[in-house]
Amino acid sequence: NAIVKACFDEKRYSEALEKTVESIDRGQYPNFIASKSATWDLHDLSEATSCMLLADSLMSIVDATRFRKVIIISGKGIHSDDEPVLQEKIPRFLRDVAGLEVSMQKGNEGRFI
Fold first, then answer.
1. Exposed, middle or buried: residue 106 (CB in 10 Å: 0-12, 13-18, 19+)?
2. pLDDT tens-digit profile of 29-71?
3. Which run of H or of E encompasses 2?
4. Are 91 and 99 in contact (CB under 8 A)?
5. Partner of 15 for a Cys bridge, out of 7, 65, 97, 100, CB 3.0 to 4.6 A?
6. Cα separation, 39 vs 105, whole angstroms
7. Which residues, listed in sequence order, are joined to residue 73 by a DSSP beta bridge?
8. Please, which residues have CB within 8 angstroms of residue 60's CB and are 6 or more apart in sequence?
9. How many DSSP H helices and E strands does the chain contain?
10. Structural contact between residues 12 and 20, judged by C-beta atoms closer than 8 angstroms
């Protein structure tokens, strides 16, 4: 979604989050909370969309205290044009912007908890 990306790039996260939630409601993006799975797959999603989906979902989990841990699959970046994007940027976003604890899963660079 171009609007989500534009807001994200300008660090207007609340606007990006609002547009992401609207897209989830329309079925354009996965609803991780409704799936009731503790494994979330970000394959084929952009950095902005991934960050906003995670922010929305993780905030919902914190409110509902559903899961103690969530496994997030970003992939290893083999489909990226140059180098992996999500596996470095998503954990940084979650730490720096959302204030969450993130650790890489040993033996798989494309998964973090």
1. exposed
2. 989 888 878 888 888 888 899 989 988 888 777 666 656 677 7
3. helix 2-9
4. no
5. 7
6. 13
7. 41, 111
8. 33, 66
9. 5, 3
10. no
Report residue 22 as tokens.
Answer: 């609207």
User: Whole-angstrom Cα distance, residue 49 to residue 105?
Assistant: 22
Helix (H) or strand (E) holding 111: strand 111-112
How many beta carbons lie within 10 A of that of residue 109, not counting itself?
15
Angle between helices 47-64 and 86-96 (to 10 degrees): 40
Say what the pTM is: 0.71
What tokens appear for 84 in the block? 């992996």
